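2024-03-11 09:14:02 INFO worker-7 job=invfold-0412 stage=load source=structure_tokens
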């Protein structure tokens, strides 16, 4: 076990738009949280322009370093950024503006992002610039960036990224669970230290040092194959277990506080409920089971390692995918289903019933037609997607028009637009159980088990209830 106590050292904090305690004899002007109210359009700027926090540490910051970025709205352009006089313009002369464009075609390209680039090396101290963002229509927004170049490493703004492996269902004892932790490189760092734990408490007795990584390493990552990490045998990572990770950064003058915690579960096997050939009465069936909204038409079909969806002979989302990761939902608190729905469309209460997400990889030749027609970039085909489920095993109410008393589950990966990703790691970052509210725009019909040997006499259709949008309530 490694218990960790960190010295705070010098106050180290990068801030955007706001002041911070002086650490050197350099002062910043007041009113850094400044906007020209008469020119500030809340709907356009408040939701569409993104200001990225600067992250600078070290005794000096080299020329050409990006100190902060401004992302422009997708509409209303072309947009531009320029330094202007006013509160916060103290160090405008020390920076340039560098644009990032949406195309390499110089005649048609439009700027999508502006980076504030250091013109000459910056010494230790506090700095601020004032920027105006505007378009041809005359809409304008003015804002001051304030930040600090520190001696000790600044605190991490974001947690590291965690990826459960293997990618895909495990096959054989030689294919064991592991967690890969990654994070972004920072300037002036000599060493990173990675810690892992069995809870979200960094100071808990179940937190351990995993690895020390040289700050000059090309790829910043660490792997956990056992817990505690010091165990050479007998510490294999179990299925469906949640772990946390933190990173600290060190230079010759100090150590940063631990980063915010990241967490992930190791993958879990698919529940037998989805693929076993047992009907609601416990009777074994000879043919494979189907989940089907009405006993005919669209359906999901599961095996322990694959998911097939069929939306009709001309359905836009026919596919076959291999399950590459399965996260079982861990509720925010007991008695809460958030952000999954609390019920299905025929109103059974599904709180407490299993929910989760299967991350899948489409098989070549079995990719949804709607995706292949819109995804033609060589080497960047989107092949990873997700299937969410909730209320697994709930029964229809006795007063249901059809399917009264039948076992069911909500199952869906049909959503507005395309949510697929190119890589496994992108899919793991995107398709978490907690993110279901981002993708679930409708309340699909419940899916019930049906079998090919009883389909001819049981083509009972779901009574139309209406699709209704799903809007997750605030987190409890």
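2024-03-11 09:14:09 INFO worker-7 stage=emit residues=476
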């Amino acid at each position: 076990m490694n218990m960790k106590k960190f010295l705070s050292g010098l106050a180290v904090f990068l801030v955007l738009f706001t002041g911070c305690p002086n650490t050197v004899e350099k002062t910043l002007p007041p009113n850094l949280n400044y906007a020209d109210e008469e020119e500030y359009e809340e709907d356009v700027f408040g939701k569409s322009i993104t200001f990225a926090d600067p992250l600078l540490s070290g005794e000096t910051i080299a020329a050409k370093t990006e100190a902060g970025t401004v992302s422009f709205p997708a509409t209303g352009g072309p947009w531009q950024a320029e330094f202007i006089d006013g509160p916060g313009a103290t160090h405008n002369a020390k920076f340039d503006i560098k644009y990032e464009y949406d195309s390499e075609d110089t005649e048609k390209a439009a700027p999508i992002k502006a980076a504030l680039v250091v013109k000459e090396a910056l010494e230790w101290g506090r700095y601020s610039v004032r920027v105006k963002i505007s378009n041809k229509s005359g809409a304008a927004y003015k804002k001051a960036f304030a930040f600090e170049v520190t001696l000790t490493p600044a605190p991490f703004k974001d947690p590291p990224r965690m990826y459960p492996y293997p990618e895909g269902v495990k096959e054989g004892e030689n294919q064991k669970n592991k967690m890969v932790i990654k994070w972004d490189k920072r300037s002036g760092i000599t060493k990173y230290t990675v810690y892992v734990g069995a809870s979200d408490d960094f100071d808990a007795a179940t937190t351990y040092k995993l690895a020390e990584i040289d700050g000059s390493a090309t790829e910043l990552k660490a792997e956990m194959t056992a817990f505690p990490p010091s165990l050479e045998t007998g510490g294999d990572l179990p299925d469906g277990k949640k772990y946390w990770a933190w990173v600290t950064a060190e230079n010759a003058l100090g150590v940063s506080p631990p980063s915010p915690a990241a967490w992930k579960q190791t993958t879990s096997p698919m529940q037998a409920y989805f693929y076993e050939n047992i009907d609601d009465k416990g009777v074994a069936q000879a043919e494979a089971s189907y989940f089907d909204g009405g006993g005919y038409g669209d359906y999901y079909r599961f095996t322990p390692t694959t998911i097939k969806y069929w939306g009709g002979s001309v359905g836009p989302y026919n596919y076959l995918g291999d399950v590459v990761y399965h996260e079982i939902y861990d509720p925010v608190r007991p008695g809460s289903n958030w952000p999954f729905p609390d019920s299905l469309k025929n109103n059974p209460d599904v709180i407490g019933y299993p929910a989760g997400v299967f991350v899948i990889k489409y098989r070549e030749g079995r990719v949804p037609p709607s995706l292949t027609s819109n995804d033609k970039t060589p080497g960047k085909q989107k092949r990873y997607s997700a299937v969410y489920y909730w209320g697994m095993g709930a029964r229809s109410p006795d007063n249901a028009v059809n399917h009264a008393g039948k076992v069911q589950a909500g199952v869906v990966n049909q959503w507005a637009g395309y949510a697929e990703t190119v890589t496994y790691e992108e899919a793991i970052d995107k398709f978490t159980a907690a993110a279901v509210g981002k993708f679930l725009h409708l309340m699909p019909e419940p899916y019930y088990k049906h079998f090919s040997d009883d389909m001819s006499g049981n083509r009972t259709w779901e009574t139309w209830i209406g699709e209704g949008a799903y809007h997750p309530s605030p987190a409890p």
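2024-03-11 09:14:09 INFO worker-7 stage=report msg="DSSP finds four helices and 25 strands in the chain."
2024-03-11 09:14:10 INFO worker-7 job finished
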